[in-house]
Amino acid sequence: MDTMIASDPSNSVALLAWYDRHARRLPWRIGPQRRRDGERPDPYRVWLSEIMLQQTTVAAVGPYFDRFVTRWPGVADLAAAETDHVMQEWAGLGYYSRARNLKRCAEIVASEHGGRFPETSDELATLPGIGPYTAAAIAAIAFDEPAPVVDGNVERVVTRLYRIETPLPKAKTEVRARVAGITPETRPGCFAQAMMDLGATICTPKRPTCALCPVNESCAAHAEGDPERFPVKAPKKEKPTRTGTAYVAVRADGAVLLRRRAEKGLLGGMAEVPNEGWATKSGGEEAEGPPLRADWVRLPAPVRHTFTHFHLVLDVYRARVGREIAAPADAWWSAPDRLDGEALPAVMRKVVASALEG
DNA sequence: TATTCGTGGGA
DNA sequence: TTCCCAAGAAT
Fold first, then answer.
1. Which of A1, A128, A212, A341 has the fewest CB atoms within 10 Å, counting from its CB?
2. Which of these is catalytic: A50, A89, A145, A272?
3. A231 preceded by cis ω (within 30°)?
């Protein structure tokens, strides 16, 4: 039996009323009250936040968002920025292709759209880094287009509302159709954010607080008493473990030897200490060995790090060298006061830290 | 359709 | 410790 809130418009009304009282206050939002006064948020800030929030928690994004909008207040500023500087500011946030696409997108908006974001989801979806979700989200939130906004939160809420047994990601089509069916013509931006806030604060993955849910009376999973069973997900495959070796050369003045990774692939375009052996699945391609002739000492504990699809165990070697030692081609010495500003991903910061402690 | 792409926090 | 997962996109 279908308990469709599409046939019950008061349900989206109930959700919006809940949102008016419980909306999360976030730096890239304007509150429900200002929205109802006809105001809309800055599309640049909406876009930037949506890119950063892809597969990333609100808590993690917060400080990055603040630093970005302070340094680059508008899309034209970001378009004019050095890509290296963008990568440095993004370092630690992960999924670094987002940063490269962010820069490309800013350049296109600046040069081909007169510095203004397109206002429809279809146009937005043609821009780099903007897929189905982000296009719909920006269109709804910044321009009040009634586009179906489907993220992980909405998938959870909707699969529970309708007790969708089809496992994700196969159920995505059905979920999107359901969302399209319940998205209101009025306040679609608030509706989208309300659905996401509901998923983030009430309709949580574990132990949802259905008693506080504004739409619990039309929720099929709640009626059955098994909301936590949804969404059903396809089994995930286990992560293999790769092993490799990293070399931390420390100059007498404390400078550390760094180099730049290739533009494409894992950690593309980011900085790293010289390392080898873990790039491919098979591992153990030709061993280059250490980047300098020096007295290398292996640290007692390897560095462990887990990526999306594999575990990494990195043996770390350290060598202390004189200040007269030149950096190899394509590498550079990074002074202690500049290390924080380098585009070092988290795994490389771990490696450097372990070598400087020990 | 399936794989690749990060990270940190919480259970 | 280990697993899960958080406002997905590109290929």
1. A1
2. A50
3. yes
A53 Cβ nearer than 7 Å to chain C strand: yes
Residue A119 has pLDDT above 50, yes or no: yes
* Placement of tokens 């692939």 in the chain: A265
Every domain of chain A with CATH number 1.10.340.30 lies at: 5-229
DSSP A303: E
Residue A183: Cβ within 10 Å count: 21
pLDDT of A325 higher than 70:
yes
Could you identify the residue whose CA is nearest to the C1' atom of nucleotide B5? Answer: A95
Which positions of strand C lie within 7 Å of protein CB atoms? 3-10
pLDDT tens digits, residue range A170-183?
A: 999 999 999 999 99
Q: Which two tokens stand for residue A38?
A: 């006809």
Instruction: Give tens-digit pLDDT for A13-29.
Output: 999 999 999 999 999 99
What is the C-alpha to C-alpha distance for residues A256 and A263, in angstroms, rounded to an integer? Answer: 22
Residues with CB under 7 A from strand B: A 55-57, 59-60, 92-97, 170, 206, 237, 265-268, 281, 305-309, 345-347
Measured between alpha carbons, how far is A251 from A257 in angstroms, rounded to an integer?
A: 8
Over residues A121-147, the pLDDT tens digits come to 999 999 999 999 999 999 999 999 999
Q: Encoding tokens for residue A115? A: 């510095």
Nearest to A34 by CA among A47, A20, A44: A20
Q: Which residue has the tokens 């949102």?
A: A19
Give ranges for CATH 3.90.79.10 in chain A.
241-357
CATH for the stretch A5-229 = 1.10.340.30
Which nucleotide is at minimal CA–C1' distance from A60?
B8
Q: Is the CB of A144 under 7 A from strand C?
A: no
Residue A145 annotated in active site: no
Q: Which long-range contacts (CB under 8 A, 24 or more apart) does A32-36 make?
A: A32/A190, A35/A187, A35/A189, A35/A190, A36/A187
For A241-357, CATH number?
A: 3.90.79.10
